[in-house]
């Protein structure tokens, strides 16, 4: 099999990227009405274009991307969602690049690419006018640029990583959860500690530049938008108070401990089209990735204690995943499964490592590894209609409701 992959590797990668483009754009105009939070985000985006007044509890960058799509393609379903689709494809590229960067293994990177294309959660966020895909992209770009700095020791790469982090914060404040994972990786790697000390402690002015970049980019985007019509301090206070004091409930709300288990996915839309079909959109993870991911996390923790050659990388991936879970143990406001989206790329990469790892152990494990990849593809194909908003029958929709808690 490796000979086949080696021979056709560029073509396989090309086919997978074409599949990513096709699945993100095919039927993107359906439904032709606004669903879930699209009604808010497209309205806010329009306000940016018309210089109208509005108040949103999230920073402005995500709505600016949506506004760009509307300005380019019009106030229609394609205009609402095209930016998300583009970023949904770019995040797949990043997953592939980061997988290769941290493990230096093209086969593992290929597995990561396959799983990324087959990620149902990334898919649904790539096809709707929501802002979570922007958040996930900039969090991942921050990490990728950080690891480039780790390898190349060029200051400008860490400066770019910090700028990307600012962009992530400008989509949603929850981007901050990735910072402890990056800091921990920096602390546990002796060579990186020395590298950072030489470049940013001895040369302290570089550290000051990092802080200035974060503030300049973050505040600059605010002042370039109409949110600057508010007192900036007051806006942050009001937005923080909204999240802190939110008591609203929702039938598809879910707790953090259910997300990996995929107990309560989010029904984004369920509507009769009037021609005997319906459009149902369920934000659900690919179970072959999520449930395998639970096993992969446990196995990775074991390998950390056994000083695996990729110990520090595994610690980083595990920490990145849990940092988008642990805060919600203490946050009491309503929560949804999409809050876990920024962790999904790291889960995909960890599952890719796990699959590649077990492939090394004898024939039975080779078969298991191939089976898990094929299962992810099959699951993606089977659930695609009710994730992508493709018109289907009520019978076919409910055939896919395997658990009562999904309905």
Description:
This protein has a two-stranded antiparallel ribbon with strand order 1-2. The model has no long low-confidence stretch (mean pLDDT 91). The radius of gyration is 21 Å and the shape is globular. Helix content is 67%, strand content 3%. By secondary structure, it is mainly alpha-helical. The longest helix is centred in the N-terminal third of the chain and has 27 residues. It has one domain.
Q: What topology does this entry show?
A:
Elements: H1 2-25, H2 38-50, H3 61-73, H4 77-103, H5 106-117, H6 120-126, H7 132-152, H8 155-169, H9 178-188, H10 190-201, H11 204-223, H12 232-245, E1 266-272, E2 278-283, H13 287-305, H14 311-323, H15 327-330, H16 344-359, H17 362-388, H18 394-399
Antiparallel strand pairs: 1-2
Helix pairs in contact: 1-4, 1-5, 2-3, 3-4, 4-5, 4-6, 4-7, 4-16, 5-16, 6-17, 7-8, 8-11, 9-14, 13-14, 13-16, 13-17, 14-16, 16-17
């Amino acid at each position: 099999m490796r000979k086949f992959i080696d021979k056709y590797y560029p073509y396989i990668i090309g086919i997978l990227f074409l599949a990513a483009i096709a699945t993100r754009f095919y039927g993107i105009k359906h439904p032709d009405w606004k669903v879930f939070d699209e009604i808010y985000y497209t309205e806010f985006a329009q306000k940016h274009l018309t210089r109208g007044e509005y108040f949103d509890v999230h920073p402005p960058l995500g709505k600016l991307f949506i506004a760009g799509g509307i300005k380019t393609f019009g106030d229609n379903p394609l205009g609402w969602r095209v930016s998300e689709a583009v970023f949904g494809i770019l995040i797949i590229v990043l997953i592939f690049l980061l997988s290769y960067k941290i493990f230096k293994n093209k086969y593992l990177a290929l597995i990561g690419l396959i799983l990324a294309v087959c990620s149902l959660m990334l898919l649904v966020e790539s096809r709707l006018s929501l802002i979570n895909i922007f958040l996930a992209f900039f969090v991942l770009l921050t990490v990728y640029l950080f690891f480039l700095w780790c390898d190349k020791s060029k200051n400008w790469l860490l400066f770019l990583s910090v700028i990307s982090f600012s962009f992530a914060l400008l989509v949603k404040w929850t981007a901050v959860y990735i910072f402890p994972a990056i800091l921990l990786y920096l602390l546990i790697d002796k060579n990186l500690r020395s590298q950072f000390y030489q470049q940013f402690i001895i040369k302290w002015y570089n550290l000051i530049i990092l802080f200035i970049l974060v503030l300049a980019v973050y505040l600059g985007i605010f002042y370039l938008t109409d949110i600057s019509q508010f007192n900036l301090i007051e806006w942050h206070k009001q937005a923080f108070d909204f999240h802190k004091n939110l008591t609203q409930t929702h039938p598809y709300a879910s707790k953090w401990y259910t997300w990996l288990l995929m107990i309560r996915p989010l029904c984004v839309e369920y509507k009769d089209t009037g021609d005997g079909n319906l459009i149902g959109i369920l934000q659900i993870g690919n179970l072959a990735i999520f449930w395998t991911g639970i096993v992969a996390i446990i196995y990775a923790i074991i390998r950390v204690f056994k000083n695996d050659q990729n110990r520090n990388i595994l610690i980083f991936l595990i920490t990145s995943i849990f940092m988008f879970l642990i805060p919600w143990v203490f946050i009491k406001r309503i929560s949804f499964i999409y809050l876990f989206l920024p962790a999904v790329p790291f889960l995909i990469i960890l599952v890719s490592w796990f699959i590649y790892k077990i492939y090394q152990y004898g024939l039975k494990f080779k078969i298991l590894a191939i089976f898990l990849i094929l299962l992810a593809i099959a699951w993606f194909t089977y659930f695609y209609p009710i994730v992508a908003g493709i018109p289907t029958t009520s019978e076919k929709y409910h055939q896919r409701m395997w658990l009562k808690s999904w309905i």
